[in-house]
Amino acid sequence: MSDVTTDDRARALDAAGCIGKPEMVAALQAELPHDIVLHDDESLRPFECDGLSAYRTLPMIAVLPATIEQVQTVMRICYEYDTPVVARGAGTGLSGGALPLERGVLLSLAKFNRILDVDTDNLRATVQPGVRNLAISQEVDHLGLYYAPDPSSQIACSIGGNVAENSGGVHCLKYGLTTHNIIKLEIVTVDGERLTIGSDALDSPGYDLLALMTGSEGLLGVIVEIVVKLLPKPELAQVAMVAFDDVRAAGDAVANIIKAGIVPAGLEMLDSPAIIATEEFVHAGYPTEAAAILLCEIDGTEAEVAEDIERVRQVVNDSGASDVRISKNDGERALFWAGRKAAFPAMGRISPDYYCMDGTIPRKALADVLIGIGELSKKYGQRVANVFHAGDGNLHPLILYDANNPGELERTEEFGGAICELCLKHGGTITGEHGVGVEKIDQMCVQFPKAELLQFHAVKAAFDDKTLLNPGKAVPTLHRCAEFGAMHVHHGEMPFPELERL
Amino acid sequence: MTSTVESQDQTDALAERIKQAHAAGTPIAIAGSGSKRFLGEPVDTSAHDTLDITAHRGIVSYEPGELVLTARAGTPLADIEAALTAEGQRLAFEPPHYGAGATLGGTIAAGVSGPARPYTGAARDFVLGTKIINGQGEILRFGGEVMKNVAGYDLSRLMAGAHGTLGVLLEISLKVLPTPRTQATRVFEHNAEQALAAFSSWAARPWPISATYWEAGRTYLRLSGATSSVDAAAQALGGEPVADDVDFWRGVREHERVFFTDGENALWRVSCAPAAPITELPGSLALDWGGAQRWRVTDAPAEAVRDAARLHGGHATLYRGDAHPRGQALAPALLAAHHRLKHAMDPAGILNPGRLIPEG
Ligand SMILES: Cc1cc2nc3c(=O)[nH]c(=O)nc-3n(C[C@H](O)[C@H](O)[C@H](O)COP(=O)(O)OP(=O)(O)OC[C@H]3O[C@@H](n4cnc5c(N)ncnc54)[C@H](O)[C@@H]3O)c2cc1C
């Protein structure tokens, strides 16, 4: 596990002998209400980790602004005193993106929890970044509208966090990721300036900074307002629950459904360990003897759903399904989904800890990679359950472990790294939607050669000249990659020849 | 897949040209077929070297089951569309060609999208990955061929609409989609305000709408999808059928309709919120993209057109005629961020300088 106190930035700060905690608290309190500047250990404790709870650090200070002007003030002061800032939404991130820095300010957007406007003529909503994802759909439900990206964490995660991670969800196969569903952002820059990114129109003059900001993990600016797209709720949705005796057949069925020209609203897969654990937990009626199940949702007009669900039935039967059940009503549809939605907590019941991976691969490699993960599981002697966005090729292997057993967390992380590398070998990426954070920073050295990493740093510097925004996350320094040792070998060249091996 | 599309890899030669230009500080004008040249700011390129991309062509990979196609930037758009059509798939953003030779690179660099844009997405929405040459002549890959990827900043989507000012596109991986099984177009008699109201009310319901357009008292509504739902929507929404609707929508997309080709007055594109009220300007008006893209043929002064666009949070771009700049100026803080980003990708400022934003 990486120790954040050895973070490159902290080292640099030590060397610079930067401003101490009392001075920083005083500087912030001089311009902000005292009660929004937290600095004793007890009030800092709630911020010490995000959803990746194996990593914990107490921030030096936490600030909870309630207005954009206060965010600007915080940023201006931190910029002046060279103090790094980590933005935090709801802290549900799974890659340690919101992990605080010991010498940094943790900027919580929790008080930005208002939906400012719902515009039914233009089908959009203006929201503050701390608004929970699900709260948007609830707010516009009576209008027959919803916000499409639906991460499984949607009851808790914030829309600001969604933008920072470019989060996806079950329905992203048809309706796109966060980047496809936002129209405009207000951001506060590292030095406290306010910028409007995007516009009220469907495009804007200049560069597509909306694309650049989305998924930038809090490294380019603080998001303080978001305009999201709203969609009309489909007339009808039906889900097919399809069982397979063989993981390979299930993986192939996913590719076959897509090949048949069907665009399901969601296409999720659970393997046998995931089926058994969730069935025991929520009794969704999953066949516990199956090697894998697919949940394939079709939505649209009544006629369209009837037409497509029959085509799904045909394709999965031709792909070797052992059982196909189609939801007869919304109650049954909710029940079929209940298992999928409870999969993470269900794992929590059968294992003290679990570690969630996020590699994304071409669909055709699904079966091979799942089988490969099974082999790795034997090699490392650790159980894995797979529950994931199969239609997008986005895997979520959950490695089960017990942090109380000495060495098990380290072995789990090594296993996770091996899964990342397996995904890369099959033409995939180390992260589809959870972000790099601190968790996958070493695997970034495997995914990207030096020139790309340097290009990322140059882009970062264009927005953050002092490297104060969430430093040490998302993009590794070349030094870090040299320490990690397992770098991308490009055209047979030795990577980073100029860096001394440590 | 076997492809009949001509294939040539010029990567190393192109990168070498940029390396030299970077060292010498020589500006480079990147040229696809030139069909969308009118979209950027006119630049005096007499002192520029032209980098012709059209020989760097060919489909690198296409697997219909993956819904992903990767092609070199100089590949003619027509070749790509032919390969997709053969598999019952398409580019769902319906890129305008604006000329027979249009290349994939020029299409993505210009970031142009056709009538389906508000309903299925823009060019940028379908970019999954790119291979580029940055301003230092380095060959870089961002994104990939998978549907979801958040490793590193999304620099590939950033290339869409950057007009080659941040990098030379070498290869582009795009998400492709199945061609809808059925398409039908209905026409209604409306004035412009009625058209906007209709667009709004249609959009709030889950109809399978794929394009909307209004011109000269008539609203055109295209429905695409499963046969059953297109038929049901056509019945419920009414209107009269349009027989030759493929031609009709091509005319809108390629600006072949008389509205676009007739007369000498300037042609402006106004991009705004779809339901933004219609502002008074002389000349003629067409409403595209459910009201979010408005075409103006007008002799009004450029500033009047720009002000009208700005009034509702939009912006105006000149397609035909004289005005400087042709696009809309950026706010100073935003322009400064653009200059820093440009510098990060192209430190010597040699790639299409001045084409998208004034030089800093
Ligand atoms: C049970 C469970 C299920 C999950 N399911 C999914 C899923 O299906 N799909 C998916 O994509 N993710 C999923 N996640 C991951 C997580 O919920 C998402 O990444 C979510 O978007 C994080 O939002 P947050 O508000 O909790 O952000 P945080 O964890 O607080 O922060 C995440 C990152 O965003 C940055 N950030 C937060 N707010 C801002 C802001 N206003 N401005 C700038 N930067 C900011 C932080 O610095 C950090 O880098 C799941 C997590 C859990 C625990």
From TrEMBL, chain A:
PROSITE patterns in the record, alphabetically? FAD_PCMH
Give the species this sequence originates from.
Salinisphaera japonica YTM-1
Asked whether the keyword Glycoprotein is assigned, the reply is: no
Record carries keyword Flavoprotein: yes
Residue ranges of coiled coil: none
Q: What is this protein called?
A: FAD-binding protein
SUPFAM superfamilies found in the cross-reference section: FAD-binding/transporter-associated domain-like (SSF56176), FAD-linked oxidases, C-terminal domain (SSF55103)
Q: Which cofactor does it need?
A: FAD
Q: Which GO terms describe its molecular function?
A: FAD binding; oxidoreductase activity
Query: Which PANTHER family does the record match to this protein?
Result: GLYCOLATE OXIDASE SUBUNIT GLCD
Write the record's keywords in alphabetical order, separated by commas. FAD, Flavoprotein, Oxidoreductase
All copies of domain FAD-binding PCMH-type, residue ranges: 55-233
From TrEMBL, chain B:
GO MF entry, a single one: FAD binding
- Please name the InterPro entries in this protein's record: FAD-bd_oxidored_4_C (IPR004113), FAD-bd_PCMH (IPR016166), FAD-bd_PCMH-like_sf (IPR036318), FAD-bd_PCMH_sub2 (IPR016169), FAD-linked_Oxase-like_C (IPR016164), Oxid_FAD_bind_N (IPR006094)
List all membrane-crossing ranges. none
Q: Where is the FAD-binding PCMH-type domain positioned along the sequence?
A: 1-179
PROSITE patterns the UniProt entry points to: FAD_PCMH
Q: What are its cofactors?
A: FAD
Alphabetic keyword roster: FAD, Flavoprotein, Oxidoreductase
Protein name per Swiss-Prot or TrEMBL? FAD-binding protein
